[in-house]
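Postdoc handover notes: sequence design on the structure in folder B. Input tokens:
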């Protein structure tokens, strides 16, 4: 069902409104029969996209509202989040930064709503990876991250005016006498303190670091145990797995086309 402009060949061209066979609706610009230009697409499951299209694909600036209450506002390339954008997750967490292939990739800031802590630094394929800073209420950690966890040299900076320098070391797992059917889960890196000093201008970029890291101390006394938040898998942050499933379903509906 379509109501709107057409070109000399009878194709949808210009502004129009359409209702798809699956119950979705689109209102916006068309070019030679395809959604191109600015438009608003409403999914029957409650999701909504408003922004630019190019040949039936989300392309350019746009905002996507998901059924669970989450929202992405930013750049799109061929139906994927790519470029710069902000994602508000259903649990209140936010990510602002660079994207590639629907994943957090490049420089970005992730803010945890429950604690107010935030990760500022590099991401690779949706995982915290590279030089970064993890900022908490009264202290922060500067170092490198690898696969969402801290590894190698870094330092904790406390608001009381001191620093704790050290290194995150990956512990070696003891092998069982008999091989297990499933490999054991990797152990979390362990923080080893080397010195406590006054504030210094050192940063991870000042010297070569062995590997990425990410961590936080829960007490000003310099506990060797990192906080659980530090080791929260980036892939789990904000329930992104559920969001991917919803987007896949929405995309499947949108790709059914208009008749």
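Designed sequence:
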């Amino acid at each position: 069902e379509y109501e709107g402009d057409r070109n000399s060949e009878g194709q949808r061209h210009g502004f129009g409104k359409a209702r798809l066979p699956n119950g979705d609706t689109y209102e916006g610009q068309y070019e030679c029969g395809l959604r191109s230009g600015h438009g608003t697409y409403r999914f029957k499951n409650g999701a909504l996209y408003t922004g630019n299209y190019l040949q039936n694909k989300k392309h350019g600036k746009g905002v996507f509202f998901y059924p669970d209450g989450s929202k992405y506002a930013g750049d799109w390339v061929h139906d994927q989040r790519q470029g710069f954008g902000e994602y508000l997750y259903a649990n209140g967490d936010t990510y602002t930064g660079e994207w590639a292939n629907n994943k957090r990739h490049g420089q970005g800031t992730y803010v945890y709503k429950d604690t107010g802590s935030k990760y500022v630094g590099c991401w690779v394929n949706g995982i915290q990876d590279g030089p970064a800073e993890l900022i908490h209420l009264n202290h922060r950690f500067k170092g490198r991250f690898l696969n969402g966890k801290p590894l190698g040299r870094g330092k904790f900076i406390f608001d009381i005016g001191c620093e704790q320098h050290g290194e995150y070391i990956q512990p070696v797992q003891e092998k069982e006498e008999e091989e297990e059917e499933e490999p054991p889960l990797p152990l979390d890196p362990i923080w080893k303190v080397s010195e406590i000093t006054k504030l210094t201008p050192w940063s991870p970029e000042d010297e070569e670091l062995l590997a990425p890291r990410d961590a936080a101390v829960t007490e000003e006394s310099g506990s060797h145990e990192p906080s659980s938040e530090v080791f929260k898998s980036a892939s789990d942050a904000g329930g992104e797995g559920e969001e991917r499933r919803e987007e896949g379903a929405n995309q499947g509906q949108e790709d059914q086309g208009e008749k």
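Context for whoever picks this up: Residues 1-79 form a domain with the Histone H3 K4-specific methyltransferase SET7/9 N-terminal domain fold (CATH 2.20.110.10). Don't rerun without checking with the PI first.
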